[in-house]
Amino acid sequence: MDKQIGTPAATVEIMKKFNISPSKSLGQNFLIDNNILDKIIAAGEITKKDHVVEVGPGIGSLTQRLAEVAGKLTVIEKDKHLIPVLKEVLAPYTNISYIAEDVLKVDWTAIVSERERLKVIANLPYYITTPIVMGLLENRVPTELMVFMVQREVAERMVAGPGGKDYGSLSIAVQFYSQPEIVTIVPPTVFIPRPNVDSAVIKLITLEKPPIDVLSEEIFFKVVRASFQQRRKTLRNSLSKSPELPISKEQVEEALEAAGINPQLRGEKLSLKEFGFISDQIYQLIKNK
Ligand code: SAM
User: Fold this and answer.
1) Which residues partner with 160 through β-bridges?
2) pTM (2 d.p.)
């Protein structure tokens, strides 16, 4: 296709031609607005040196724009019916590799070559935003940056700091591995079909190393999860009742005191650094048991 796919007319034309009815269960909401596509492309700072991976190319509106600017583009699409559509509408672009798979099952080592650092850019299927983003971060898929269209509320949780209602395990996990920034808020009108929620483009710049040093990342994330499991509980209660952490109430109190944290506080008040102090104390307690 010579013309832009990301317009209402071209999208409707492709959907008619290939008899596509967007699947709700696969989170198919196609982007039809070139201004938003411009913003995603600009946030990705993509050059011909880049290997870009797109999750969920759909019928190719973002894919086309990425193929124009990237050196190499790998797209991962679960809906096998869309692969022949993409291959036809994107036939002029010879730098695209197609993977017809579930992104949660994909073998990243087969995609990324040694010493390469990917840019992952996507209008994500909203029903699995967190597993996709956390999978990339926790498994340390070698990325330089990621730009995602996500539900607005999820983007706000990713950038939230201590104190507010949006702050939680997702904020901490995202900020442990990356520097997140909301690029723009996006209304439902720029998609076919329209989602029921506002969206946002978020940029995550992968950190070389986490902003805090912890003795055990595993214990750190267990402490974070336990602290937010029941948001209204004090730290003392939530940490001692966690099935993931084998420690008594007395030991929790000991650890919190050693970390200099008031046991009556709730998790939502603590910074990343404070969670780090607590988790190091708990790690030492468990290790010395
Ligand atoms: N990139 C297109 C666009 O912007 O118009 C489509 C985005 S749409 C919000 C999400 C896409 O992700 C759909 O094409 C859907 O089929 C695909 N998808 C859903 N679940 C997936 C999964 N587990 N793995 C890979 N792709 C998936």
Assistant:
1) none
2) 0.96
Within this chain, do residues 202 and 245 fall inside the same structural domain, yes or no?
Answer: no
Domain boundary among 169, 187, 206: 206
Q: What is the pLDDT of residues 44-55, one digit of tens each?
A: 999 999 999 999
Q: How far is CA 65 from the centre of its chain?
A: 21
What's the 160 CA to ligand 1 centre distance in angstroms?
26
Q: Which atom of ligand 1 is nearest to the CA of 149?
A: 9
> Based on the structure, what is the number of domains in the chain?
2
Is the same domain home to 176 and 231? Answer: no
Structural domain contains residue 111: yes
User: Range with the lowest mean pLDDT among 90-94, 97-101, 187-191, 283-287?
Assistant: 283-287
Between the CA of 64 and the centroid of ligand 1 the distance, in Å, is: 15
Instruction: Tell me, using a 6 A CB cutoff, whether residue 185 lines ligand 1.
Output: no
What burial class does residue 158 get, using C-beta atoms within 10 Å of its C-beta: 0-12 exposed, 13-18 middle, 19+ buried? buried
Domain carrying residue 130:
8-206
**CATH number for the domain harbouring residue 251:** 1.10.8.100
Query: pLDDT by residue (tens digit) across 262-279?
Result: 999 999 999 999 999 999
- Other CB atoms within 10 A of residue 34 CB: 16
